[in-house]
Amino acid sequence: MKPIRVAVIGVGNCASSLVQGVAYYRSNNSSQGLIHDRIGGYGAGDVEFVMGVDVDARKVGKDIAEAIFSAPNNTAVFMPEVPQTGAKVMMGRVSDGVAEHMTGMGERGFIVADQPDATQAEIVQALKDSRAEVLLNFLPVGSEEATEFYMECALEAGVAVVNCMPVFIASRPEWERRFAEKRIPIVGDDIKAQIGATIVHRVLSSLFGARGVNVERTYQLNTGGNTDFMNMLDRQRLGSKKESKTEAVQAMLASRLADENIHVGPSDYVPWQKDNKLCFLRLEGQQWGNVPMNLELRLSVEDSPNSAACVMDAIRCCKVALERGEGGALIGPSAYYCKHPLQQFSDDTAAQMVEEYISDAAIAAE
User: What local confidence, expressed as pLDDT, does residue 361 receive?
Assistant: First the structure.
């Protein structure tokens, strides 16, 4: 089988973990750490990175395999020797993809390349020349205009999309309709982590309801030291992120909480944490006889590798959809792998939908 040809918008920590992971699984016959070993016949090593786009001077012009280790990336290096991809990172469009305060943070922030922004025609032609099949959106939170620019490029070039960040595309009917009309698949929006704050919060919320405990108040506080957390110091960029994470939890509660009784979102940027993310959860509820109880949890994860397994599954689901001529939001995969899908389902239901989708794909391929 030919590799799945993937283009990456934003060669940051998440891209680094994903590219390292493909090299790792290509050289190690292991399914450890994967949600699914194979989807539609494709394994985790069956991905080829054919195009990268960024605006940082330390990455533009480098091979993707080299750019992933360039500052300000600071995620775990678990595959230090990544073979050259043959694809150099091209200059993208700055637009609102770079928060103003991020350009004044020295080596930890962004150093915008002194090159003209790419035009839509240039990005579309690059996608076509690379023969990319799936485009990954790893832009920073708050990149509304930049994301819509690249989505227009994907639609024009006929490339499937995994929208890993919380600008609502797959979950907005007007955008989803355009992907459906062109028979271009999309998985989105806002990728979940493999075992992260949102999925744990959802599972615990479901558990409370299943065991008859009414959740009255809850919070999720997160700290980290990567560029994602630095970017979110600008609270004006957080609107869609907070909505995405909050609605993901609200959807699992037996009764929707008033806004003042639920707080889900980033807390602060702690530089020395680097790509490690600390999450603090608290749920308060009433048990038998209205007796109060609460649960507190602390979760520590390397943030970027934590999303890679979900992204890898989403890529392969998009490839299966392309082979089957499907377009629009992939409902099951979006609900299982993303925080803000077009349709919310419980995680158990979404998992079953993915299993059925994979099974159907396997049968169709025979």
Answer: 54
Q: Tell me if the bond preceding 275 is cis, omega within 30° of 0.
A: no
DSSP-based three-state secondary structure for 145:
helix
Report residue 161 as tokens.
């999309």
Kindly write down the DSSP assignment for every residue of 146-177, as one continuous string: HHHHHHHHHHHHT-EEEE-SSS-STTSHHHHH
Q: How many CB atoms are closer than 10 A to CB 348?
A: 11
For position 105, what pLDDT does the model report? 86
Dihedral sign for Cα atoms in the order 153, 156, 162, 168: positive
pLDDT score at 1: 80
Distance CA 59, CA 73 (A): 10
- Report the DSSP beta bridge partners of residue 5: 48
75 DSSP assignment: S
In angstroms, the CA 182 to CA 180 distance is: 5
Place 302 in a pLDDT band, splitting at 50, 70 and 90: very high
Parallel, antiparallel or unpaired: strands 276-286 and 214-224: antiparallel
Give the per-residue SS3 of 229-297.
HHHCCCHHHCHHHHHHHHHHHHCCCCCCCCHHHEEEEEEEECHHHCCEEEEEEEEEEECHHHCEEEEEE
Strands of the 262-269 sheet, one edge to the other: 262-269, 214-224, 276-286, 292-302
Helix (H, G, I), strand (E, B) or coil at 363: helix
Residue 140 has pLDDT above 50, yes or no: yes
Neighbours of 107 (CB within 10 A): 8
Rounded Cα–Cα distance for residues 91 and 316 (Å): 27
Q: What is the mean pLDDT of the chain?
A: 96
Q: Are 24 and 1 in contact (CB under 8 A)?
A: no
Global pTM reads 0.96
Task: Pick the range with the lowest mean pLDDT from 114-118, 201-205, 263-267.
Answer: 263-267
Per-residue pLDDT for 366 more than 80?
no
Task: Please report, in angstroms and rounded to a whole number, the separation of the first and last CA atoms in the chain.
Answer: 13
Strands (DSSP E) contained in the chain are 4-9, 47-54, 89-91, 134-137, 160-163, 185-187, 214-224, 262-269, 276-286, 292-302, 328-329
